[in-house]
Amino acid sequence: MPRSVNSVASRARRKKVLKSAKGYWGRRKNVLTVAKNAVDKAMGYAYRDRKVKKREFRALWIQRINAGAREYGMSYAVLMGKLKDAKIDLNRKVLADLAMNHPEAFKEIMNKIK
Q1: What is the pLDDT of residue 101?
Q2: How confident is the model at residue 12, as a pLDDT?
Q3: Which domain CATH number covers 62?
């Protein structure tokens, strides 16, 4: 009996890799072995950076809240402590948006906790 190779699946697998490598430069976009390495590396970076993105945004929000709080003579740490004592449950994302885009609302929060 002749050897059976599933060339349909093999071709589909190769096409999937080359489609993922679309837009890459040089041999990375059209030579399967090079493209596969490039796509694998890219997927690893994408997985890692989905986690890193969360860290970076939290750091950005903290910087924005700190800048807003210092306009009223308060540090970030003191502000967060007073918000907790006052039982004001606003997350950092919302606080940063208020500090940056809605200063009058942020001022009201600051007046409540002073």
Answers
A1: 96
A2: 96
A3: 1.10.1900.20
